[in-house]
Amino acid sequence: MMTQEFEKIVQQVGTVVLGKEPQIRLALACIFARGHLLIEDLPGIGKTTLAKVLARCMGLKFQRMQFTSDLLPGDILGMSVFDQHAATFTFHPGPIFTQVFLADEINRATPKSQSALLEAMEEEQVTIEGETRPLEAPFFVIATQNPLEQAGTFPLPESQMDRFLMRIHLGYPDRKAEKNILKGTGAEPALAAIKPFMDTTGVLQIQAQVEQVHVSDTFLAYLQDILEFTRTSGTFQFGLSPRAGLSLSRAARAWACLHGRDHTLPEDLQQMLPWVACHRLRSSTDLGQFSPDRLKDLLKIIPVPV
Amino acid sequence: MNRDNVQAVPVIVALAAAIAPHTPALPGWVIVWCVVMWGYVLAGLKTGWPTPGPILRHVLALAGIIGLLITFRIRIDADAFVGLMAVMAAIKPFEMATHRHRMITVLLTYFIIITSLFRSESLWIVLYMFFSVFITTAALVRINHPGGRYRSSITLSGRILAQAIPLMILLFLLFPRLQHGLFTMEAPGAGKSGFSEILAPGSISRMATDQSPAFRVAFDGPFPPTDALYWRGIVFDTFNGTQWHPAKTPSFIVPDQADSADLVSHTIILEPHKSRWLFALDRPVIGPPGTDITTGRTLYSRHRVTRKKTYQAVSRINPSQTDLTKTEVQSPDPVFTGHDNNPEARLLARSLTRDIPDVSKKIQRILTYFTDNNFTYTLTPPRTETHPVDAFLFETRQGYCEHYAGALAFLLNVVDVPARVVGGYLGGERNPYGNYLTVRQSFAHAWVEVFLPDRGWTRIDPTLAVSPGRLARNPDGSFSYSGDSPAVFSVFKKMTFMLEAVNITWEAWFTGYSFSGQKALLRQLGFGTSWGSGAVSILLLTLSGLVMAVFFWFFLHRFEPKQKDPVAEAYALFCKRLEHIGLVRNPGQGPMDFLAMIKKNRPDLGQKAGAITDMYIQIRFHRTCPDNMTRQLITHIRQFKPSRRAGT
């Protein structure tokens, strides 16, 4: 993928989700790295809009689902219903049978429903009543989580957080962007104006291209140094897992690809690390979450192999 | 000077601390030399004075060696060796630009610290060595972690030392010791000879003002009475007209088993005096291993005493004829005194003892001659010429112990009473805290032994006839030990006694722990009773060999040299060149970020730095790169010489 194309998409999405270019880039990288995205932020910031516009830009099918505490796995995956005319059970696919699936406020659902979704994310297939149904590729989940309202929620455990390639925050728009939002007529007309840039095949091609990005020994040495640091420095309660290492490598490759390179650089890793690693790490001192800025500071003391 | 020189500071501090104990023995110019060289380096940190180049360094080294040759001439001993070390250590900081040099210097500093033991093994020196090792280790930590805080270097150094102490104690106690050291190094400063082997007027009185200790004594039982504190060293039994000598080659006896009651067992720590005489309470019957008893009943070591020596002896303080061996029971011939020397003294002796057949009465008669004729005891006797006995008896009538003893022995032998002079020390200063006696050089003494047919060799001290007070008071005015309580002394004197006592206890243990001490310890631990000591030594040698091998193995693998990587080296050079113009690469900075920084600060370098970075990235991160790319990168980086100011 050429950088110009990438920039065009970013620009296009930016006309709808105002002032959020960095997050748009990250979300795109996440899609092309075949990962899933967790957005943690307050309601009304534009999470849904972002998901919708991404799906539209890439010409992918889109489904949104609001998670609630009475949501059942069947509601997500679908179920077989008896058809009186045909006298057979016919499968009614749930909203998960799509390409971009927005799981709004995932932490409101019960763990049972959450894990139904997470299994589908991991395996890209759904097994209902003994029958395995593959999901349509590319399959991309954007889950949102409200970090503040904790009453009646089931926060995702760390092991589940690991299924998301990245976690990003949207944050409030800056003053200029907000003025434009307030001036405008809402996101819907802008969204309607967007024309798809590509289609399913295009996305799959880019994903395959990402797989081809070269990872050199020096890069791997740096990656391993970082993993080693999270495990031995004593800054974190637990170090990063090999799966996290793999995720880092994939994200860095996608980032390199989106910047028109066929090889990864240490800088790719540095860009990706805060978003890929933060939700997998806990500080060893207060067991709290690790902010991306703190992680960026730590990167300064891990030498880049020359 | 570049910032690497800052790292010379801890090394200089460590070097100075290591050499400090040698200061008393170093020639003055070497000390000045050290201060000037180190001062120059330290001042250079502020003023930016240039570091001397290799030629100047060689000239300095040569000048130092020539200076040492002039100072020490051909006397290549420990002092000269220490001087050479100091001279070299002073100019070493000039070539400490690289880490390797600093490491070598610090490791050599440990070696310099060990040489302090040549000087002394006292507790204070050993404690100081601990301090010095601590400082050096801190310097070692410092040069390996130059960025850290001084405090953390010091803490780490302390921790390393604390961890090393158990191993140190174990090695001290168990590392196989040889019966006589592997190589013996003469203690520097031991040049001071103790007792002279010639007894002539002046040979003992020259020591009358020397307050340095000759030896220290601890008794196994109660202290013997004051009048028994005669420390026997040398027997002078030949006379050449002016001087008394010991027998040219000593002959030895095997003393009979001692069994009587008045035996005194005592331990002596003898300062090195470079000869083979050992002192012991008059009259020794059992000497330590490695010594013989001469026919004159003195202890004679098989090796020269060049280091502090601790030994045990058993003496009989009231000897009688029963101690004598069969050959000694017969009356020996009088000492041949010559024919025509000291004619007046010969006449005097004969006239005094005419018509007195009894030996004891003859002796008594001659002794009364001293008491009746206004002889005086003085520390500074006048010098006498050719007939010393004549001159003393008839002209000066002032003398120190050697005058009286020499004259009495001469007179007795003239009238056929066998008599000899014994040299040694008299008295001792008691340390009330350590319960031992210090015998100083100034306590040197000489007395006479005559052979009485019914008692054998009997001690007669003519000095006491003239100066009876000598027995209770040492020549320096200090009291012999009896009746002194610590309260009598001044605070300063008390402190001196106390510190000396602590040190003596330490030295007795530290220097006394040798081959036999180790054997005794191993026996207590249950080794060595059934096995030969050889087997234990072999076992210990094997064990320590194994420990060494393990350490060595770890050492080798710990510091396995990294594979040389030309690309990494070239890129490091690239970074270093930019560092010189103030563009420092943060270790966490990737090549692209670094390039961006260069372009931002120095747009004029952008093109060259960009080309280099491109090549570097191709080699390091691309799937493939042209074969000659590394070569090209190295060439580019070698030619990359950024100027300090931005060009046009």
Descriptive tags:
heterodimer; A: 306 residues; alpha/beta; five-stranded parallel β-sheet; two-stranded antiparallel ribbon; 9 strands; globular; B: 648 residues; alpha+beta; 4 domains; five-stranded antiparallel β-sheet; 21 helices; 13% strand
Summarize the model shown.
With 306 residues, chain A is α/β, with parallel strands linked by helices. Chain A contains 13 helices and 9 strands.
Summarize the structure in words.
The complex is a heterodimer of chains A (306) and B (648). By secondary structure, chain A is of the alpha/beta class. In chain A, 45% of the residues lie in helices and 14% in strands. Chain A has a 5-stranded parallel β-sheet. Chain A has a two-stranded antiparallel ribbon with strand order 3-4. The radius of gyration of chain A is 20 Å and the shape is globular. The two termini of chain A are 28 Å apart. The mean pLDDT of chain A is 87. With 648 residues, chain B is α+β, with helices and mostly antiparallel strands. Chain B folds into 4 domains: 3-171, no CATH class; 205-471, no CATH class; 496-558, no CATH class; 566-639, no CATH class. Chain B has a 6-stranded antiparallel β-sheet, with helices on one face. In chain B, strand 18 (444-452) and strand 19 form a beta hairpin. The longest helix of chain B has 26 residues, at 533-558. At the A-B interface, helix 12 of A face helix 18, helix 19 and helix 20 of B.
